Amino acid sequence: MKQWLAAVVLWSLGGQGLAQTVTVGLDADPPNLDPLLSSALVDRQVHNQIYDKLVDLDENLRIVPMLATSWRVEENGTVYVFTLRQGVKFHDGTDFNAEAVKFNLDRYRSAPGSRRSGELSLITNVQVVNPTTVRVTLKEPFAPFLAILSDRSGMMVSPTAAQRLGAEFGNNPVGTGPFKFVERRRQDRIVLARNENYWQRGFPRIEQLVYRPFPDDDVRVANLLSGAVNIITPVAAKDLAAIRNNPNLTVNNFPGIGYQGIWLNHTRGPFTNKALRQAFAATIDRDVVDRVVFLGTALPSNGPFPPGTLAYDKGIAVPKRDLALARQKLAEGGRPQGFSFTLTIAPGPVLAQLAQVYQAMAAEAGIQVRIEQVEFGTLLDRAAKLELEAVAVGWSGRPDPDGNIYDFVRCKAANNYSGYCNARADNLLNRARTVRLPEARRDLYSQITKIIQEDLPYIYVYHPQTTIGLSRRLSGIPVIPDGILRFRGVSLGAQ
Amino acid sequence: MFLFVLRRLVGGLPTLLLVTVMVFALTRVLPGDPARLLLGEEATPELVAQIREELGLNRPILVQYADWLWGLVQGDLGRSIRGNEQVAPIIWQKLPTTLELSFFSLLVAILIGIPAGVLAALRRNTAADASVTVLALSGISIPNFFLGILLIYLFSIRLAWIPPSGYVEPWVDLQKNLLLMLMPAITLGTALAGAIARFTRNSMLEVLSQDYVRTARAKGLEGRVVVYKHALRNAAIPVVTVIGLQLGGLLGGAVVTEQVFSIPGFGRLLVDSVFNRDFPVLQAVVLISALAVFLINVLTDLLYAAIDPRIRYH
Description:
The complex is a heterodimer.
Chain A: H1 2-14, E1 21-26, H2 43-50, E2 55-57, E3 63-65, E4 68-74, E5 79-84, H3 98-110, E6 123-130, E7 133-138, H4 145-149, H5 159-165, E8 179-185, E9 189-194, E10 208-213, H6 217-225, E11 231-233, H7 240-244, E12 249-254, E13 260-264, H8 274-282, H9 286-294, E14 299-300, H10 323-332, E15 340-345, H11 349-363, E16 368-373, H12 376-384, E17 390-391, H13 406-409, H14 423-432, H15 438-455, E18 458-463, E19 466-471, E20 474-475, E21 491-492
Parallel strand pairs in A: 1-10, 1-11, 15-16, 15-17
Antiparallel strand pairs in A: 2-3, 4-5, 5-7, 6-7, 8-9, 9-10, 11-19, 12-19, 13-17, 13-18, 14-18, 20-21
Helix pairs in contact in A: 8-10, 14-15
Chain B: H1 2-29, H2 34-39, H3 45-55, H4 61-73, H5 87-122, H6 127-141, H7 144-158, H8 174-208, H9 211-218, H10 223-260, H11 266-275, H12 279-307
Helix pairs in contact in B: 1-12, 5-6, 5-8, 5-10, 6-8, 7-8, 7-10, 8-10, 9-10, 10-11, 10-12, 11-12
C-alpha cells in the first residue's frame, strides 16, 4: 500500500513526461499519415507538423510562402512558376529541390488510389526548369490552385522514402516539416520529435509532440482538466465552462471556414415543391440555434462562405425567422395545414439536440419533422443516392471559396445531396474558378449565394468555429481559420 | 486428459468454421460502403469505384469469403482498409493489452466477489448479507461508462492522484502500467464482482446446509477450516462456471471501458473497425474473440476437474 501511495505521490509531483513535450488530444485517431491516401480531416493536424507545403495560409487566409519562396502566374493564369527555398532537406537527408516537387505533384496526380488526383486534375505538366525553379502548366485558368497547394496536395514528402516504402509510407512518413515522425501505436498515440535541422532557424521550440485520440467528448476534456494533455481540439460547447473555470486552462476560438445545415431533396418528397422548401427554411431561427445548442460559439450563416473568407458578402443578410412568411409559403405550396418530412441525421448528442430545435421551430408553422438517426456511413450512402428527404450534413470548408461550393450545388456534383440542377448557377460556378481578380470572384459568388437562398438545395444554418482548450503554459499557436494547429512556434512555459 | 483436450480442440473446429461464416456474413450485411467511408469528404463516384476495385469489394461474396478463408489457413489475416497495414501485427499489438486488462479486472472481481459472497452466506439474513446484496446489485447495474467517468472525476481531476487515461506497456514502465490499470480494472471488475458474489453466496448456502459440513463441525474443526476447506471448494464449481462465462463477456465489457480510459486494446479496435467498416480488422477481432471464448470454455472444464477430484475426463 505504501508503495502505491509513493507511486501516486511521485506522479503528482513529477508531472508527466519530458518537460518539453506537448501532448495534444484529438477527437479521432488520424487514419493515414500519407497525404496521398489521406481523406480524414483529422489527418491534417499531424501532416502539418511532419510536412511543409509549397505555400501556407496566414491568419487572414492569404497565401504566404513556405517551401516556395515566390511564384509568378503567367499565360493568363494557366502557368505557375515557383521559386523554391534552398538548402532544405527531408528528415531522411534527401535534398528538397525542383525534382522533389515534380515527384510529389506527379505522385498526387497519378499514383493509384490517390485521393488528391481530383484537386490536381487540371495540371497538364510539371517541368523542372532548374534545381530551384518549377513550372506547372494547367489545362485552363484555375483560381483555387494556390489554396489547394496550401493543403495536402502541396505537402512535400521525401521521394526516397516514398519510393522505398510504397504503400507503407503512411506508417513511416518523412517530410521536411518542423517535427519528425518517431512512432505510432494505433488508437493510442503518435509521437513526433523536433527536427533539429529545420530550415527556419530557432524552430521548433519544443522537443516532442504527442497526439492522442479521445473520441468521447467527456474523456477528452477530463484529460485536459487533469493535466494529462496540454491541448485538446475540438471542445464541445457543454465543456467550455469547465475549462474556463480552471485557472490553469484557457479557451481559444478559431473562426471556421466550413458550414453546417440541411440538404433538401429536390427529387422526392415534399421538398420537390419550392414553396414548401421556403416555408421550412423560414421557420429556422439561426440565433436561437447558436445560443441554445452552441452556447454562442457558432456563427449564424448567410450562405456557404463564412465571414473572414474571400467570398463572404456582408451585404447578404442572414435569413431571419419569419412564421408569417412560412404560413404564406405553405398556402402557396398547396399545404396550408402544413406537412411532414423526415430529417436524417448522424448519431451524436449535439446533432440530436440540433434536430430537436429544428423540429420545435418547424412545428410552430405546422410542419412536422420526423427525426431519423442513421449511422454516418449509411447516411452518406443514402444521401448520395438521393434517398433521403432532408439530411443534415455539413462541410469542413476549404480556404478557397470554390472548395465550399463547386462540388456541392453544381448539377450532378459528387456531394450534391439534393439533386439540384440550375444551369445559371453552374455557369456562374464555372466562371468563378477561372476569374483571378478577387473582387470579380466575390461578385460571382454573391450572385450564386442569392440563387441558392432562393432555390434552397441547402439551408445554410451556421458556421462552426473550432474551439480549442489549452494550458496557459502554451504560447505561440497561430490562429489560422483552417482549424489546423501549427506547432512550429509553440513553446511551453514553466508550471 | 490429454485426449480430452485434443478432442475438445478438434471438436471446436466446425464451430470456428461456422463462426467465420457468420462473421463474414454479418460484416457484409452492415449497411455503409467501406470505400465511401474511407474517402469521407473526398469521395467522388470515380474514386469510390476505384477503391472498391482495389479492395476487391466488387468480387462475388463467396469469392471474397474463400479468399479470406484461404488466407486464414495460411495465417494471413489480410490488410486493414483504414490503416493500410497488415492486420496480424495490429492484433498482436492489441491483444496483450486487453488480456492484461481482463486479468486485473478478474482479479478485482474475485478478490471482492468471493469474500463478499462467503460473508453474505455465513451472515445470512443480517445487515451484512443485505449490504452485500445491495452492493452486488449496484455493481451489476451501474453502467461501466458512468462508473469510469466517476472514477476519473474523483481520482484524476479532484484528487489528481492517478492519470485519467492511457496505456504504458509493462516492460516500458511497470509502475506506471499498474497505476494506469487501476481504475479500468476496478470499473470492469466491480461489475463482475456483483455476479460472483451472488453466485458464491447461493452456492455456499446450499453447501453449508449439507450433512458433511455438519459432520465437519461436529468433529470439532475450526470454523474457518470448515468454511474454506470443506465448503468453499465444493461451492466453487458454479462460481467457476460464472467466472468462465464472464471472462468471455469481459472482452465485450472492455469495449466501453477501453473507450473511457483510452486504452488501445481489442475493444477500441472493434469499435473503430465497425464504424469504419474495416472488414478485415473486424473479422479478425471477432474471430479471435470467439477463439478466446472457446479456449476459456475448455479451460473452465479442466478447472472443474482440478477443483473436484471426482470429475475425470477421458
